[in-house]
Design a protein that fits this description.
Blueprint: H1 2-22, E1 27-30, H2 32-37, E2 46-50, H3 53-58, H4 60-63, E3 67-78, E4 86-90, E5 95-99, H5 109-121, E6 125-132, E7 135-143, E8 146-148
Parallel strand pairs: 1-2, 2-3, 5-7
Antiparallel strand pairs: 3-4, 3-6, 4-5, 6-7, 7-8
Length: 164
């Protein structure tokens, strides 16, 4: 009984002390030109630079290692000809690879369902992540208001009998 009270008190103290540390920076979206004009204005926020695929490809050195967001239709997704699972996002004229090392060969069911819906409907999908030499390392995939974050791969229901 005393042990449980001590544990509960300790847990409450940890939660109370960690609350300010858990607060995140405000998320701000801007264009590359605005960011380059005044980089100091964006130092206390979670910056996401919005761009179109063509501009990212044309000015890749300026976007590299920045968190960017692009929108396009899914031309392909899978593991063909690349070291991990990826999306080929297109705007009709340009194509950009978006990948994540969190999935490796198989994609989470939440992302796969979202991609199938976007691919079948030929509707735009938004990806944000960090631009690397081989494409965008995905942080979030957004489609019709739904967000998938690749660092979390939901468990397969087949491993948990009785869930379905």
């Amino acid at each position: 009984m005393v042990y449980s009270r001590v544990c509960c008190s300790l847990l409450c103290a940890v939660i109370a002390l960690s609350a300010p540390a858990c607060s995140s920076l405000p998320r701000v979206r801007s264009t590359l030109d605005v960011v380059l004009a005044d980089p100091a204005a964006f130092k206390d926020c979670e910056l996401i630079i919005t761009a179109d695929i063509g501009d990212v490809l044309d000015r890749a050195p300026l976007y590299r290692e920045q968190r960017i967001e692009v929108t396009g239709t899914v031309a392909y997704y899978g593991t063909r000809s690349f070291w991990t699972w990826h999306i080929m996002l297109t705007d009709g004229q340009h194509t950009l690879r978006c990948y994540t090392h969190h999935y490796r060969v198989s994609v989470g069911r939440d992302a796969e369902t979202m991609l199938l819906r976007a691919f079948d409907a030929h509707k735009p999908l938004t990806v944000n992540g960090v631009l690397r030499n081989d494409g965008i390392d995905i942080r979030e995939i957004v489609y019709e208001g739904q967000i998938v974050r690749p660092e979390y791969k939901p468990p397969d229901a087949a491993f948990y009998p009785g869930i379905l």
